[in-house]
Design goal:
Layout (H helix, E strand, L loop, with lengths): L1 H30 L3 E2 L9 E8 L4 E6 L5 E4 L6 E3 L1 H12 L2 E2 L2 E3 L17 E7 L4 E6 L7 E6 L5 E5 L17 E4 L5 E8 L2 E8 L2 E4 L10 H12 E3 L2 E4 L10 E7 L5 E8 L6 E6 L5 E5 H8 L14
Length: 315
C-alpha cells in the first residue's frame, strides 16, 4: 500500500514539474513582444536584392522596368531570373518576425555571426525611393532557425522560417529556365520547318487544321495536343550569352502565333553530340542564346506532316 502511495505521489510531482515548466516557458514567450524585423516594408516595393556571403561573394537580383528580374554578380552578364522564386524569397524576408530576442549586446555579434564584417549571409534590399534595408543572418541552432540582426540595431533575434539554402549566391540557381512559356489556349498558328520539310497548323474555330491539306481530313487529337504542349513550353539548361559563334542554328525553325502577342520564332541548332546532348536555341523574344536538352527537342526535329493525320476509319 505504501509503495502504491509513493508511486502516486511521484506521478503527481512529475505532473507538477511539467506544469511549472510549461507555465515558465509560456510566460517567457509572452513576455517578449512580437517584432517585425522589416517593419513597414512590402515585398513588391523592393527593386534590388543583394545576397552576400562572408567571403564577399555577392549575388545581385535586380528588377527591370518591365517587371522582370535579372540575376548576376555585378561583373558578368546578368540573365533573366525566375520571378516566382524571387517573389517567394522577398515575401519570406519582408515578413520575418520573432518573439525571441537573444541579445542586445554588440560583443555577442561575432559569436552569433551577425557582425558587420563576420556573418553567414548579408541581405541588402533596395527599395523604391532610395531606402536601403539590411539584415545579417548568422549561426543556425536548428533547422529553419537562424540568428538574425537588422543592421540598424544591435538586437539579435532567433528567427524561424528561413535558412541559408534559400540564399544561394550562384546566379545560375536563380535563372528563369522557362525559355518559351505560352498559354496553349491562346495559340492560333504553329509552323515548323525541319529536315523532313515544313508544315503549318492553324486553329479554325475550336479545331486545329493542317494548312494545304484536305479540309475533310481529320487530325489525330492526341498527336496535336502533344505537339502543342511541346512548342508552348520549352525549358533550357543554361544561358549562353548574347552572341553565338558555333554552328548555324538551321536545324529547325519554329514559328508561333499567339492571340494579342507578337509572333514568336525559335531557331534550333544541331545536336552538340557530346555527353550533355544539347541544342543551342534562340528565341526572338529573348536577347540570349541558350542550351536546351536534346530529349526535349528531338520530338520536334523528328515531326512530320503525316504524323498529324488520323488513320482512316476502320483501321
Amino acid at each position: 500500500m505504501k509503495k502504491k502511495t509513493n508511486l502516486m505521489l511521484l506521478a503527481l510531482l512529475g505532473v507538477q514539474l511539467i506544469l511549472i515548466i510549461f507555465l515558465y516557458w509560456s510566460g517567457r514567450e509572452k513576455g517578449q513582444p512580437m517584432t517585425d524585423l522589416m517593419q513597414g516594408l512590402a515585398a513588391d516595393a523592393v527593386t534590388e536584392l543583394a545576397i552576400t556571403e562572408g567571403s564577399g561573394k555577392t549575388l545581385i537580383l535586380r528588377k527591370e522596368e518591365n517587371g522582370g528580374w535579372q540575376a548576376g554578380n555585378g561583373q558578368a552578364v546578368s540573365y533573366p531570373a525566375d520571378p516566382e522564386q524571387i517573389r517567394h524569397l522577398l515575401t519570406t524576408v519582408t515578413s520575418l518576425q520573432s518573439q525571441r530576442l537573444v541579445t542586445r549586446t554588440k560583443s555577442s555579434h561575432i559569436r552569433l555571426q551577425v557582425d558587420d564584417k563576420i556573418f553567414a549571409k548579408k541581405v541588402t534590399l533596395q527599395v523604391k525611393g532610395g531606402e536601403t534595408r539590411t539584415l545579417f543572418l548568422g549561426s543556425s541552432p536548428g533547422p529553419q532557425a537562424m540568428h538574425v540582426r537588422p543592421a540598424a540595431t544591435d538586437d539579435v533575434y532567433l528567427v524561424d522560417g528561413i535558412s541559408v539554402w534559400e540564399l544561394d549566391t550562384e546566379p545560375e540557381s536563380w535563372w528563369q529556365t522557362n525559355y518559351v512559356l505560352l498559354d496553349g489556349d491562346k495559340l492560333r498558328e504553329v509552323s515548323l520547318k525541319n529536315r523532313h520539310g515544313s508544315f503549318t497548323l492553324r486553329k479554325e474555330g475550336d479545331k486545329w487544321r493542317l494548312a494545304d491539306a484536305d479540309p475533310q481530313q481529320e487530325l489525330a487529337p492526341a498527336v496535336v495536343a502533344d505537339f502543342l504542349r511541346l512548342v508552348s513550353h520549352i525549358n533550357i539548361n543554361r544561358y549562353l550569352g548574347r552572341e553565338h559563334h558555333g554552328k548555324p542554328l538551321d536545324t529547325a525553325l519554329l514559328s508561333l502565333t499567339v492571340a494579342d502577342q507578337e509572333p514568336l520564332t525559335v531557331t534550333i541548332g544541331p545536336n552538340s553530340g557530346d555527353e550533355d546532348s544539347e541544342h543551342v536555341i534562340k528565341s526572338s523574344a529573348s536577347a540570349f542564346f541558350a542550351a536546351a536538352n536534346s530529349d526535349q527537342l528531338e520530338p520536334l526535329l523528328a515531326m512530320k506532316k503525316e504524323n498529324f493525320l488520323a488513320p482512316p476509319a476502320g483501321e
